[in-house]
Amino acid sequence: MIHLYLDDYRRCPKGFALARSGEECLIMLRESEVDILSLDYELGFDSEMCGRDVVTALIREGLYPREVYLHTSSLAGKQEMYQLLYEHKPEGMILHNGPMSDELLGRIAKAADLT
């Protein structure tokens, strides 16, 4: 089981696998069981996908992680992704309308040091 961080620019938090594009994120969702997924919305000017496209594919293919965070700085993008996920998420999936806390990031980084 992995933690997955989708962002074209930001540094990947310790203990997470990094996807720099929507396409890469979907490949990792298809190939791995994902515990925590953290999504960006805007994925660069040359990207064919944005965070909404990833969410739409995630829903269509049933690639739900256990927990989702939205760390994007795009307020409109965050709202769009949140609404789509909220409307379609399976019971038991935890959805957050914002980024991970420093405390959670610290726990994950510490656990990564132990492995």
Automatic annotation (TrEMBL):
Keywords from the UniProt entry: Cell cycle, Cell division
Pfam families, per database record: cREC_REC
Domain called Cyclic-phosphate processing Receiver: residue spans: 2-86
One of the GO BP terms on file: cell division
Domain of life where this protein originates: Bacteria
Name of the molecule in the record: Cell division protein FtsJ
